[in-house]
Design a protein that fits this description.
Strand order of the largest sheet: 3-4-2-1-5-6
Number of strands: 15
Distance between the termini: 11 Å
Order of helices and strands: EHHEHEHEHHEEHEHEHHEEEEHEHEHEHH
CATH superfamily of the largest domain: Phosphoglycerate kinase, N-terminal domain
Oligomer: single chain
CATH class of the largest domain: Alpha Beta
Number of helices: 15
Bound molecules: adenosine monophosphate
Length: 398
């Protein structure tokens, strides 16, 4: 993949696809602006080269054709202005490819920035429509994709648009290069011991990634809801905990594969169980052998935390994807926060993937102590799986 540094963009019109899909609270305030900050390097590079810059992103899932304010990117324009510390205003289009966007793009001067409205206000974005992509392509002489978190989707601004640029006019931005380099370097040539910590709700979304990781790592640590399918596969009773019955065989296969390859496989040895899925439930800390029939496991217990810490002690490379419990509720967040502290305190290269996991790390105050926090959950899993991301493939296509 070419990067922006390989292109002659000096003084040109540049269209940059960013991922500004940031979380906001009920009042519309941005609660975590990491995705905006991650795009700054590419944007500043273009400002320094006197480009006329058009930025585009999706934001959540509005109904196409309905311009609802809560899905507007205008808070992003304001935050971007603050982060770039620019005197000049950042122009915000009131539409995506309509009259306002076209007029404002035309009026851009060197070093100025226009942000288009939420790409998903237009139906053509998610349907990868070629006409819509062509109109978007008209905003730039160069196309830069810095939206790693959206690269696993065949959407117009990621995929169809690349057809309108040759290899001298399209490339990945700095964030994109960083994401790819981190994952490929670690997966191709990890410093060992290499440990994968996998959590989250279900095995189903992570099955392929787990299968790939077993081939590469020295140890696998499993937590979160997905641990219960593995525990059940080992013959434990798991009460009403999350369970994917159709994946019991897969779970057995992964454990067998790990055994054959000499990969150490760690499951929780104790859990926090609750009598219902609620912050106000009655809870107990129990060994996994003692989960009562009507109770559900919502976090790993203290013994598991200690066990996992021991297993991570000598790690040189750690990939972490998925929380250890229902961290959104305080009572079941301890396992995830402890995991975050443990990983951040190791001397290993630490790579965090997935929106929830990044959220845990941020809330735990450990973000600065991780080597790299990926901005794309689904996209980073696909990289681990070794599947070419459509957005990256399209950037490389002639
Ligand atoms: P994922 O998107 O697969 O990474 O899953 C993240 C979600 O898994 C979070 O919203 C957690 O609340 C949820 N989760 C983690 N552990 C459990 C559990 N033991 N039971 C139910 N949900 C869980």
């Amino acid at each position: 993949m070419k990067t922006i540094k390989d292109l002659e963009i000096e003084g040109k019109r540049v269209f940059i696809r960013c991922d500004f899909n940031v979380p906001k609270d009920e009042n519309g305030n941005i609660t975590d602006d990491r995705r905006i900050r991650s795009a700054l390097q590419t944007i500043k590079y273009c400002i320094d080269r006197d480009c006329k810059i058009v930025l585009a992103s999706h934001y959540e899932r509005p109904e196409a054709g309905v311009y609802e304010e809560k899905f507007s990117l205008s808070p992003v324009a304001k935050r971007l202005h603050i982060l770039l510390n620019m005197e000049k205003e950042i122009f915000m289009a009131t539409d995506v490819i309509g009259e306002d966007a076209q007029a404002k793009a035309k009026a851009l001067k060197a070093g100025e920035i226009l942000l288009l409205e939420n790409l998903r206000y237009e139906a053509g974005e998610t349907s990868n429509d070629s006409d819509f992509a062509q109109t978007l392509a008209g905003f730039g002489e160069f196309y830069i994709n810095d939206a790693f978190g959206a690269c696993h989707r065949k959407h117009a601004s990621i995929y169809a648009i690349t057809e309108f640029f040759d290899l001298q006019h399209k490339a990945g931005g700095f964030l994109m290069s960083k994401e790819i380099n981190f994952f490929s370097k670690v997966l191709e040539n990890p410093v060992r011991p290499f440990v994968a910590v996998i959590g989250g709700s279900k095995i189903s979304g992570k099955l392929e990634a787990m299968n790939k990781l077993v081939d590469k790592v020295d140890k696998i640590i499993i937590g979160g809801g997905m641990a219960f399918t593995f525990l059940k596969a080992q013959g434990h009773e798991i009460g009403t905990s999350l369970f994917e019955a159709h994946l019991v065989e897969e779970a057995k296969n992964i454990m067998q594969k790990a055994k054959n390859l000499g990969v150490k496989f760690y499951l929780p040895v104790d859990v926090v169980v609750a009598d219902r899925f609620s912050e106000n439930a009655t809870v107990k800390f129990l060994p996994i052998q003692e989960i009562p029939e009507e109770w559900m496991g919502l976090d790993i217990g203290p013994a598991s935390t200690r066990l996992f810490r021991e297993a991570l002690n000598d790690a040189q490379t750690i990939i972490w994807n998925g929380p250890m419990g229902v961290y959104e509720m305080d009572r079941y967040s301890k396992g995830s926060f402890s995991m975050s502290h443990t990983i951040s305190q190791t001397h290993a290269t630490t790579i965090v993937g997935g929106g929830d996991t990044a959220d845990v790390v941020l809330q735990a105050g450990d973000a600065d102590d991780m080597t790299f926090i990926s901005t794309g959950g689904g996209a980073s899993l696909k990289l681990i799986e070794g599947i070419a991301l459509p957005g990256i493939e399209a950037l490389c296509a002639k």
